[in-house]
Each structure stands twice: as structure tokens, then as C-alpha cells.
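Hello,

Our lab assistant flagged a job as stuck in the queue for most of the afternoon. It eventually completed. Since we weren't sure the result was trustworthy after the delay, we are filing this so someone can double-check. Below is the sequence as submitted and the structure that was eventually returned. Let us know if re-running is recommended.
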Amino acid sequence: MQKDNFYRMNQHDLNNLLVQIGEKIRILRKKENISQLDLGNIVGRSANQIGRIERAEGNPTIETLYRIATHFKVEISYFINEKRD
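-- returned structure --
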């Protein structure tokens, strides 16, 4: 693969992606009417970790995203898809 064809995510793009992921998690959580503590218990993370992810202060692992996606019955790609719901 040539370097010219390789997409490098800059910090701005990463920050936007983290905001998008956090917003989508918060929306799903609120639709189900569960707290950050509840979601944390469901997916094996602390309420603090869930809060940091929702505020785009933390970078969720693939495992965490997978667990959240599984709970809400969405594909993991839902969180990184650029379309807004």
C-alpha cells in the first residue's frame, strides 16, 4: 500500500469520533432509561468509565464497545458510522 492511499486520522478527527461515540451511547442508554451505573454493571465497567466515554474524555476499548453494542443489540459499526440518528 502506498503512503498516499493510507488515511491517517488526525487529532481533530479522533476527537470528533470520540464525541460521536459518546453521544450515541448516551442516546441508547437514555432510550432504555438506565443510568451510567446500570450500563457499567451490565458491560463490566464502572459508572465513571461510562461517563468518561460519553463525555469523550476516555477512549473506549473495542471490547467495551462490543459489550455495549451487544447489550443494545446494534452492530459495533453503529458507533463509528458517520450518519447521525
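-- support follow-up --
The delay was a queue issue, not a problem with the job. The result is valid. DSSP finds four helices and no strands in the chain. The domain at 11-79 is CATH 1.10.260.40 (434 Repressor (Amino-terminal Domain)).
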